[in-house]
Amino acid sequence: MVLPSADDPAVAYNKRVVLASTIVVFIVSNGSYIARLFARKKTGARFQADDWIMGLALPFSYIPAACLLYGLTVGFGEHEANVSKVDLKKFNISLWVLQRGNPPCLLCVKTSILLLYVRLFPTRMFRRVAFGVWLFTLGWAVAAFFSNMLQCLPIAYFWDKTIKGGHCIPNALINIGMTNGVLSFAGDLVILSLPIPMVWKLQINNRRKMALSGMFLLGGFVCLTSILRFVALAKINVKDITFTQVDPGIWTYIELGIGITCGNLPLLRPLFGRFFSSGSRNGSSATPYGASGSKSYPLSRITDRSYNGEGFRCMESGAKGTGLDVDVESVGESGSEIELNVKGNGSSSAEVASGEHGSENSHAGNGINVRTEVDLRIEQVRAEIEKETAKIQQRR
């Protein structure tokens, strides 16, 4: 029976949704990575491994995007009864190709995020846990890639059911897709929660702990898209695959795009430094990163830095009676809110850009040594500002 197509509002809606969602996710995911590159350039920091690997995730995400758009030309979104056999074969080929991009893209995204975590929290225990999570992610990606690819034997039987002796796993799109999705979702939850205990062990005020936790928990949007993808997969009807595959196909690409975007967002702070620095404690109109007209610079006010049993440097309050508290606003090479450098020999250093503190602050409270290394770039900017200020005063 041929179902209404051209005049069917559901078919027209499917095609609009596929087109709109694909374009929007493509722009957002690519835009977030471009913004990440600009943030790197703004701070003058060198590219790290996590930047390159996140960039590698983008080409893999183009695979499902291209397949979704191509599918619209061969019956995607219409009822299968209205799709010719030639177009149906082309659609099934595009569906098989679409599945190839998902595992490697998510592997790159998760690897990039784990590398960022390891750079922010470089303790031996954390590295081991992160490496274990990465091994699980790698195993999942390999299993997901080959299980989808080999769901039909020979492989061509997936799109050409006239091949004699061919067979497929029953309800492969649902059974394999759901299994792989659940395992990926479990890995997402672990990666999402991994940095939170480390953040709450930092000796900083609760407001900053909550801000840092919120930054790392942005990946929760990926978990939400995974759940919505599960719901869509459960509704697939293999007898009307071109129509019922719309929602799973869309959420598959959205999951990749949101994963890339959430992985980039924590590193965009340098682009919005003016907003983050508006609440400067010293009350000055601070302009971030030594921009012209600034009166102060991002500070790392760190006092006692003791060593806990887990190999993580605690940032604690100073000696009793000093009245000093801990306020960390350091921006490391990653451009993120906080970057700790903990050396394996038991010593530590905090790289800071200070407009108020100099080398005379290398000791704080009861002889506790606090080493501050002034960023040369910001010092150069300060020197230029002082020269310009002196010239203005001479003219007056």
UniProtKB/TrEMBL annotation:
The chain crosses the membrane at residues 17-39, 51-73, 93-117, 129-150, 181-200, 212-230. Keywords: Membrane, Transmembrane, Transmembrane helix. Belongs to the SAT4 family. Residues 35-273 form the Rhodopsin domain. The keyword Membrane applies. GO terms for cellular component: membrane. This is Rhodopsin domain-containing protein. It comes from Phialocephala subalpina. It is found in: Membrane. Residues 335-368 are annotated as: Disordered. It is a multi-pass membrane protein. The keyword Ubl conjugation does not apply. InterPro entries: Rhodopsin_dom_fungi, SAT4-like.
